[in-house]
Records
---
Amino acid sequence: MTQTCRMTPLRWLANALLLWVLLTPGARADATWIEPGADGAPVVHLYFFWSLACPHCLEARPFIEAIPAARPWVKLHSLELTRHPENVHHYVALADQVGQPAQYVPGLLFCGRVQTGWDDDATSGQALLAELDACRAAAGSSSALDIARALPTPAFSVPLLGDVSLDGTSLPLMTVLIAGLDAFNPCAFFVLLFLLSMMVHQKSRARMLAIGSVFVLTSGLMYFAFMAAWLNLFQLLGNLAWVTLAAGGLALVVGLINVKDFFVFGRGVSLSIPENRKPAIYQRARAILAAGSVPAMLAATVLLAVAVNFYELLCTAGFPMVYTRLLTLQDLGPAQHYLYLALYNAVYVIPLAVIVGVFAFTLGARKLSEREGRLLKLMSGLMMLQLGILLVLAPELLNRLGVAFALMAVAVGITWIAARLTRA
């Protein structure tokens, strides 16, 4: 495991005013990653941030500071943080530029990427040399950002979404996992199941498929628009540390409320459809069945889906907020941002579409029980709590495949145990 030293709270507190100023949008500075040397060959800049209080930094320092002797084309910037608060500024600004938090030392930045931690010279040291060599080799025909992506790490290509590194980035998997959990929205299930149950008595599979499909499609489009608004807000605010902390804090609050609902459902603060709003929803659903023609029924279905989605967002509003914040922390273009949102919403509507298909095939009536709603609340709350903790304490871990699987395993595992204990 790569060894890191977290910068101490006292050191951060001592530089709090400086960091507050530096974390404002106007404080970011562009880094120089590669430049032509005197002979025209590329020179690679290596930024090494270390602390006297970090034993792993002191272990790594002799090896790193000796690199320019063997590789003269490496321009080393060795920057100590404990005695030089201005270097904290530099670390934060450079890490912010590439969308990563400046939380750990030793920190190595080169070719538009960030590495933290150090095992020993034979592993971490040799890996660093190999990546510097690959960076320089690619520098002749690529930009610094392209070079960072071309470094020799195991990767596979996802159509439209780009390359995905197996030892780091887990955005496609995280997208599917978060959207999958978000899809089990008890509020959405409640309304759709009620609507389909009312339509069972008409015994028309075609009509049920048409109305159910319109409801699901409208719900997906509404959710996409809602997430796009979150995305634009976070892009406007930029990669500020407090924005990530605020997103993590809100995720913790939402997660705690949902977990609370499992134990004391319907009491106190709850992210559910209010009881006093349910009669209006029932009335809109009955209006669909009373419509005189299929076009009128479909139009009424759209109105119901739009109205209901404002309540549905209360049930799992934390997931879209957390996910769009994760999205803005990635180095992606505008088109990729919206493609990921489209992927998220495609996954989100799958359970709803399955419900419509099953009802149309069986013409059966089914309602969401209180126990099932509580279990869905528990699973989403546990996932939200984990995401909130990581956003607050270590957002960089959300880029790891193993973490994505672990989050899902914990949420599903605890919910499965709770389901077994509450079967009676």
---
Amino acid sequence: MATLLIKGGRVIDPSQTRDGAADVLIEEGHIAAVDTAIPVNGARVLDVSGKIVAPGLVDLHTHLRQPGREDKETIETGCRAARRGGFTTICAMPNTTPAMDQRGIVDFVHQEAERLGLVSVRTIGAITKGRQGRELTDFSELFDAGCIALSDDGNPVADGFLMRRALEYAKVFDRPLIQHAEDPALVAGGVMHEGLVSTTLGLRGIPSEAESIMVARDIALAELTGGWVHVAHLSSAQSVELIRQAKRRGVHVTCEVTPHHLALTHEAVGEFDTRAKVNPPLRTEKDRASLVEGLRDGTIDCIATDHAPHTDWEKEADFDAAPFGISGLETALAVCVEALITTKVLTWSQLIEKLATAPARIADLRAGTLAVGASADLVVIDPSAHWTVEPQRFVSKGRHSPFAGRVVTGAVERVCYRGVESEP
């Protein structure tokens, strides 16, 4: 493998508290040096003057759909979408068909991803068999197979006793349970946030308490058991405050927020626009502002895409019938730049920490870093590039985005995975 020298960029690596002009030398697929003015010595040179060089982004929450719903997405198309978005590591959620609740399915996903060699794919196994919330899976088997966490994502573990036992079981492995926090009884068939917009449109709403009540219960169970709960795709101000207070008490709770919840409110539903139908739903401006502040003050640990692709025929149904979820891998960085960098909420270093270093730390992966010896997984970002979101040009099979037609700033220019560099 040829030696590559990436010269002239602004290297941002929160894992090494580095933010400044530097060169990056890659040898044999690993980071060999990060320093100013590294001599060429026969290396192939990539000039990235005016660009940001950062660790490859890490997504804790990606739906790849395979096996079972290859019409929505495949491991290959999902990995290509990740790469285009600057992600070199993604964590595949278990709501496949069948669910990722046993070793054979986990092994299949790992082997297919390794065969493709596009990005690193790690897996998140199911907490309960079939994600049905009735019987725990074999945690030992799933963690031994390489799962970095367990979740019934798409379904909450509604039974409090079962969740307690699951937290006790997962504590043995010092791994998190990722909870889709909602009380099914309060969701009650709702399709968007319960508020003025849902009332105006005549749509059944989902109150923010559907999330915060489950967050409060799981915090209490984590406190009781000493287990680790990670709350997926946080959406409400109440939930942010509950987690803030729990962290102050020393409860082992972490959480994530999506780019779309940072950038949009329930107003995006407009005239029954299914591209804005997500779960949890987009909520009020107060909720959005609380999420941004929670990210800024460290209450929210990281940003995750919740990339959830669907077919055209499903997503273009009427609002009640359309599935929840949008494609987010290819727009995540630019949406975060718009919501957090241009508004001066976060610095670039803080944003890279939330998109790469922190999720890698939660998943216990040696990713999200440009430390010497680490795999040469990195992204080159043009922070001033403007481009228009055109879902018809997505490489993901899912081509539905509430950001369609929006001019955004911040583009992924190059991606390097295991030392192999190319356009995304």
---
Amino acid sequence: MILQIIQIIVAILLIVSILLQAQGSGIGTAFGGGGEVFRSRQRMEKALVAGTVVFATALAIISIILLRQ
């Protein structure tokens, strides 16, 4: 039961991170700004990509564990 709840939370986080990446104008406008420094925006986008990879991997592992139960 706990693992299923964790799976739902990870899936929602994965969806949110993918949708934030899909915005054409970048992350800055998603949070209400547009004039951030390039480096900080680039770091945010790299962190978002890394988070997406982590969430996708976690979702796959949790799904396999639940499948084998």
---
Amino acid sequence: MFDKNTYIKRRDKLKQKVSNGIILLLGNNYSPMNYPANSYRFRQDSTFIYFFGLDMPGLAGIIDIDNNEEILFGNDVTLDDIIWMGPQPTIKEISEKVGINKTEQFARLYDKLKSALRKKQTIHYLPPYRGENKILLNELLNIPINEQKENASTKLINGVVSLRSVKEQQEINELEKAMDTAYLMHTTVMKMAKPGVYEREIAGLIEGIALSSGTIASFPIILSKHGETLHNHDHSNKLEKGDLLLVDAGCESPLHYATDHSRTTPVGGKFSQMQKNIYQIVLDAQIKAIQTIKDGVTNLSVHMNACKKIVLGLSELGLMKGDAEQAVEQGAHAMFMPHGIGHMLGLDAHDMEDLGEDFVGYDNEVKRSDIFGIGNLRLGKKLRENFVVTVEPGIYFIPQLIEKWKNEKKFLDFINYEKVKSYIGLGGIRIEDDIQVTKNGYKVLGKPIPKSIDDVENITPK
């Protein structure tokens, strides 16, 4: 964890933004795989980590603004726990490390909140995303599970988003540390992209790299020669010469800061001319998008500029036609790139997505589009200094989408369907880096992972 003053200052800032009532922040518990004693790896709630810094199950925190009181609720381990897990610090000992002076047994949380409700104090909570916390919230506040999301505190959500969006330098440093592992993961993929290798061999090895480096994968690894499926977690295919291997993977640091990179590698070490043409368009769009990033620019404009670059490139190949700006405004480009240019990054790979994409990515100035493709942009609002975002354009040839649009005669003024048909089977290409927004521009975080055609071909075995 960071120094305890970090968490004290963060909670103080949150109090100022919420201004009154009680803030309730629930930690996570172990989640069973198939029976209670066999659980998935524990992962603490990111907002709880941000304000309380404690990475263990069975905790809840209250910030009582009205009475200027902060309380950590949790139970000390029993002798039976110690036998199985070893000695553990007391709740009081861990609370002092993050500047909390008052602790209570977890059961007292019920009494505290019932008393607050009787006094008609406002209780602010965030939308829960785990079933056990939805049940707990129902027991604590008597709010039906199906009404909890709509009754979550907008004031608290906005306060959390405003604080977590702007990264402190120590958070940037933590991200940079994880980038070294991310570099090793992605360059290992490139070196293993040989005919006859199964995708599962590569996926398993790079997840092992994360574990052996003291980190974990920040999300289930996407690694497939069928990159036209955007989030493809199937690793059963054998690689053949001429395939394109798309990998989207990151690692999560010991303090839970996530990296997120994508690369696309030619199996056998050489892009075909068709693959090279599409790859270069994606790379040009990514570089263009990164170069437009700076404080005060909307991420929607970054997205639209990248899409226009893709349309211009595809038009040169005869796959698209007509006015590029109109094609993007109407959404014709989305047959090739149906996702957004990127998202927030931090304690989550999709930072704060549990709070609601529109709260994180949009505001009163920039509203989400209802146009297919553009509407999938997770982050549209103005970028601010020390936001950390991903930039990940892609081009995909999705047979079902192509066939559907062709049959519907969509965008005939912009798409050359006969030419597109000859590209079906190419798969998908995505290139992604993690970017810190600076006052006058941007910084690409981490050691550069090869992405130019020459650099990728040079590292990939022939």
